[in-house]
């Protein structure tokens, strides 16, 4: 059992009586890449169900499943053709129900992706919109406009798609439709009451099936600036914080908060459920506005994910994030990796080697899991998986084509999970060819190879999650900071846990206390080596 039977610890937990999600550890399952039960080279719901025992053993509290809805898979499921069904590639509704039932039996919550900003161009509503005339009610569910220029031959404004190229595509009758992502992902018009009504139907459909909540895709999208004005800087990307700040008419527009209030009203009729928004904004204060008491419960906080390997950058990210979320009474969330960014093992290898990257990844994990609030673990974080440099012909992300082969896209962080064995695809599938190829040389990284090795990253995560769950040292909100040697950080939780990171190049003295866990070997002389975190009590 990974959960300690320590009764004093569980008593102190239950006394707090706060919603489960305020301190939860979520595990992000990129459904295509987790486990393939039917041998077609793509992960599926039954595959996840078979691995629930592993997730329970790991010690996470909740799953977030990326989209598994019927989809042409142009953006691997984020182009949804029917939000209230399962794509046959991933199984069917019965598989989904069985997965939820089994997960709940293991005390694992199940949250799923909602994609309210856009649909697939194969969604029946968009098919109908294309077939209908300009100005028709069918077109009014999406953002159709006449073009500019003498013959309307130019897009209605200068907006760019996040995936590269213009955010508008022309249709044969001369109108254009808006898509902030791929052309196959038309944006919905959230000023049309039919659009929120449909989202409410979708939410109820899944809530009634027992899901514990939703991750909301592009939750800063939906509302566009009135009149769709030109951007001052159309080259701007929403995923990169803009030091100059300023308004982007595509994102973080005031009216989007009305959408979140509506989502919250639906959710509040179902006890104990949660929403977490994917929100890319330029300041912590802008982020906090999404988790005001009548909006989302949680927002992904990407500050740690954006921080370089630098103790001061980590400390600033932590201090600023806690202050911003405290101002609205929401818990802070902590993310190191997800399906849209280079995995942190590889980010921390830049300018160093992969061994160093892995050591830093382990140290970062102990910082992440020591912090108050919510942690998101991306599948494979617990194995210290690196990104994979895939050959051109293997690339699948629409970013590759839409950027004219300038950006390689996000496939490198979406490679199939290595479960066992010596060769690709390492137990992920019985098929030799998987949707993305697994690389050679991962035999030492598999779950099988790491499970019984007490020094493995998997063992580190298991122990860390167990302590975080059961040890009273992790109780209470807020942090006390300590000054330490340059390149280091140290904080104490109210419950007593002390977390110290040495991100400098030299060993430093270990702070006083009893050692609970360390991310790597400690010095015989009582020192904390470079790129190492220690937990003390
Ligand atoms: C979000 C998803 C990303 C997807 C995009 C469009 O950013 O995380 O994977 O491509 O939305 O739906």
What features would you describe in this structure?
By secondary structure, this protein is an alpha/beta fold. It folds into 2 domains: 24-118 and 211-404 and 420-462, Glycosidases (TIM Barrel, Alpha-Beta Barrel), CATH 3.20.20; 124-178, Alpha-Beta Complex (Oligo-1,6-glucosidase, domain 2), CATH 3.90.400. It is built from 15 helices and 18 strands. It has helices spanning 7-16, 45-50, 52-58, 93-105, 124-131, 194-208, 256-268, 284-288, 303-306, 311-326, 344-347, 354-370, 398-402, 447-451, 457-470, and strands at residues 25-29, 62-65, 109-114, 144-146, 168-170, 175-178, 213-216, 274-277, 298-299, 333-335, 374-378, 480-482, 488-492, 498-502, 508-509, 515-518, 527-528, 532-536. Strands 9-8-7-3-2-1-11-10 form an 8-stranded parallel β-sheet. Strand 8, helix 8 and strand 9 form a beta-alpha-beta unit. Helix 12 (354-370) packs parallel to helix 15 (457-470). It is globular, with a radius of gyration of 23 Å. The protein starts with 6 loop residues before the first helix and ends with a strand. The model is unreliable at 1-14 (pLDDT under 50). Bound molecules: alpha-D-glucopyranose (GLC). The site of alpha-D-glucopyranose has 9 residues, from loops.
